[in-house]
Amino acid sequence: MQKSVSLHTLGCKLNYSETSTLAGKFSEGGFAVKPFGETADIFVLNTCSVTENADKECRQIIRSVLNSNPDTYIIVTGCYAQLQPNEIAGIHGVDLVLGANEKFKLFDYVNNFEKKNLSCVFTSPISEVTDFDYAYSSDTDSRTRAFLKIQDGCDYNCSFCTIPLARGKSRSLSINKVVENAKKLIDSGYKEIVLTGVNTGDYDYRAESENQDYKLVDVLYELEKMDIPRIRISSIEPNLLTNDIIQLVKSSKNICRHFHIPLQSGDPEILKLMRRRYNRDQYRDLIYKLNSEIPGVGIGIDVITGFPQETEERFLNTVEFLNSLPASYLHVFTYSERRNTFAVTLPGRVDTVERRRRSGILRELSNKKRLAFYRQNIDMTHKVLFETVREDNFIYGFSENYIKTRVNADLKLENTVLNVKISSADSFNFAEGSIAA
Questions:
Q1: CATH T-level topology, domain 257-376
Q2: Per-residue pLDDT averaged across 292-311, rounded?
Q3: Cβ neighbours of 411 (radius 10 Å)
């Protein structure tokens, strides 16, 4: 009888691409891949560990799956598994824990998927995690946008982050392999490729046979030549968003006019404590330059609230700074203490209730910015990639500058790119549009 597997992802787009690759490996092995939530013989959870909530969610999901089917064989991998494998192994019902080096070698560690009394744990020291395991969306996803992993690991030393401990040093996929994987995605019918990595802008591949170093801009140049309507950069550090990249996006017909650029704090002193690689003036100059060089550019900003020593005054500095920037939305994270980071040793802890209050203020600011950005685009025409049909008979998609748009149409538009004229924006959730000639 054919065994079935269900997979679930916590965290970033990079994790999604890796889960997709694992699903593809199961499918190739003859397993039936079921949607998350359906009963399956095997359950794989690809974890995140950026915040304490991600750890809690991991434990809750495992318990929920086992409550539905106690016989499900539970596999846990990802960042949380690398950082705290024994903690996960202690969760009742977990059968296999795989670290960063072991994730894509899953079938080397298990063959019959039969539950045992004790968990098996396979992890390597992070210093030994040097291989690049490529990942990209597979045809098991039914997605219109594909995530293509081109970089992994991080050499930065931000004081709040555990990712270097979970993923290892920065390393990049060869540019030839990037192009090869992109071609597979195009052949599978995807209309948009999202370039992902832990620190995507740090892409740096040395081709010894060519005596040539390749950077992210070189990857973009190569993909731009391919038959793909849209290429998007998932996230890029401000110090790595070079003028070459800006000028290429400005002139390109298929690289999206959209950047997601982490800030984390708008207060100079907090930025220093976070050990970020830029200051407030440099960040402001970059945002204004993007708006000047690329009309209509969509800009998302990551920000953390409640970091140690973030007084009310320093928080208000962040609010005022963000309010002054011509950006289109914010991704707000509430600071969470992480083991083995410098930040956890700092004095000046912010009360958790106060952290949530500040996060709420910034989320309201994000809603206002998004609505204002949508309204700036009324009467403009954008290329929209349609993705999903809702029960309200509207179909939704995203423009190249990341405006969520809906039109009154049918399922036949799914996975198509069409010109849409924005007609109104009464909500920060979406803009209204109509198919343009």
A1: Transcription Regulator spoIIAA (3.30.750)
A2: 97
A3: 10
